[in-house]
Amino acid sequence: MYRVLYRKYRPRFFADVIGQPQVTDTLKNELTSGRLAHAYLFTGSRGTGKTTCSKIFSKAVNCLNPNNGDPCGECEICRGIDEGTVLDVVEIDAASNNGVDDIRTLREEANFTPANTKYRVYIIDEVHMLSIGAFNALLKTLEEPPEHVLFILATTEVHKIPATILSRCQRFDFHRISPECIAERLKYVCENEEVTIDDNAALLVAGIADGAMRDALSLLDQCMGRSEGHITEETVRLTAGLADKSHLLDITDAIKAGDSAGFIGIIDELYKNSKDMARLCNELIEHFRELMLIKTMKQPRNIIIMSEDEFQKARQQAMSLPLADIVRAIGILQNAQEKMLRGVNRRIEMEMTAVKLCSKEFGSTAAIDPAIEKRVAAIEKVLVSVKSSAKNQTASSSAPRPRTMLTPAKRPSSEEMEKLRANARAFSRWHEVIEEIAKFSPTVAAGFSGSKAYTSGRFILVDSDKDICFEYLRKAELRDRMRETIKEITGEEYKLGRYSYPDEKREDDPLDTFIDELKASGIKVEEE
Fold first, then answer.
1. Mapped to the 3 state alphabet, what secondary structure does 138-167 carry?
2. What is the pLDDT of residues 319-358, one digit of tens each?
3. Total-model pTM
């Protein structure tokens, strides 16, 4: 009968346990020195080796021919424990045997000496599932157990175990296994099974397993059933139901461009291919997490699991997005994931999320417009200077000296505009600028379609009958991006302005009014 991989390749010796040296080395030292405790607590996430180490330990303490802390694996005791025929080693599932009566039965059995082994070993799996009464019944036995009894308690949720139990056990924490260790183990298994696996495929399986060797081997088992002797990254994605990485990159580009229609189109394509929307939402959260780490860390490559080609694409994407937008996207996606788990229509929720991500006006987590932030910062800077000036005037008896402060550049006056237009010449390479803009935002490029541009000194003046064109120019981040594009094309630095302004009187800018009041108070103000 076929044995699944995680059972077939379960470690039989401490040396075979992957990624837990802090546990295996200590247990071997205790076994060789004979300094055994009466109760052990193994804690850690699923699939990290808690039950495996419990069984190896139960063999090692009873082995007839131990080898430097490891069981021999060949004596009748070792073989009997592997086959489940040794009744002195008892494995209890606390999830289904969690009552007071179950623990009382255990206490009564513990008083009997073992029939064939040196120690009677009780392995209680998922011990946090015991009731309060059951914990209380176990407490006295843990405190003063018979000399021939060992307890091994295993749990994934150590915070649910009473402190009175914890204080009577030696605690061993099992860590999540690193993707590199899992990938190497998968290659070893594939070699023994006469199957080839690509490096990227092994790393992808390791990433999906999230530090659990058992999960990785189970997924590998499925991949072997789908493939014909060779496992590729595409095989893993199809088996696990993952979206192709290119889809995640395309979705992020759509969010960056504000293209909700394009995002919903990708959702429709994946839905028709039976892609689970909750899984897609989780993958997008993971993708934006990777972008956040790239954006904020000096060496993100050490903790991001993906191929080098994918990493370079993700890095390029991360550098083109503000950190606030990345964090905002994670927040919106996490809210959507919570709603999906509560039973709402997953496709509709994903489509609503697409609209929210592509339109910053939705949701309280929307990022503040950088242009607004810049003007607020300028006002704060002026206020600080005014307070400082007032303090100096109060402290000094002499006449106050006018202070000089810099403010953001204001719109040119009518006389200055006339002078700029008089010296203006047509900018023949404006179409090249719009073509470059289209590469990072087709929507913005469309707003500048039909516009003209003129050079005048260090200014490029844009002429258009579309108001949206000048709305874009007022956004600091976009304006800086355009200036960088112009510099790449011409090799010269230019400021951007409007060729002509509407004749109607515009409303007074609060910042301009504030600056005029400062001038009237005797403070000298210069423009940047």
1. HHHHHHCCCCCEEEEEEECCHHHCCHHHHC
2. 888 888 899 999 999 999 998 988 888 999 999 999 999 8
3. 0.60
